Amino acid sequence: MGKALQIKEKIIEATIKLLQQSSGNIENITIRGIAETVGVGTGLINYHFGSKEKLIEVCVQRIIGNVISVFNPRLHENLNETDKLKEVACQVMDFLISNPEISKISILGDMITPMIMDNTMRTVMGFCKVFISDGQDTKLLVYAFTLILQGAFLRKDITGESLGFDFNQKQDRDKFIQFVVYRIFGGDRL
Asked: 0.85 exceeded by the pTM?
């Protein structure tokens, strides 16, 4: 790895640590603070990333990508596919709600700069794993379902007022997810 790539990687690693220490509160993170942590000038950070926002997005995408790659949902063995999806989706939504700033940056980053295997598509592929058949129809439905969850999360603060679901309350989140899962994928608990 070249020296420029090593420095870029150190900047990313330092920023990830600062993000974790600040619980995702990006207002508490400055380019100057990152530069001091790494031992480089602020101009070098701007050269590699262009802005604090772009650097934060790169770091958040890496954090979320790592979370997705190690995510191992807790599932009861005797659940059917639809109930497994509901359980996995509830755990994913719990993560989003527990990590709102990082989750928002990741979702919006994927929407603004979509890629073939961005975090949204990796989430879709993870949801598809609960199905025995993962044909094109299943993938399309899971994709639509994932976008619904992302939209509901991004609009969580007004969802209570407009739809009667308070996403800050686990019971309401789970009820919303159950409703959507059973409407899209079928189920005997409509």
From this structure: no
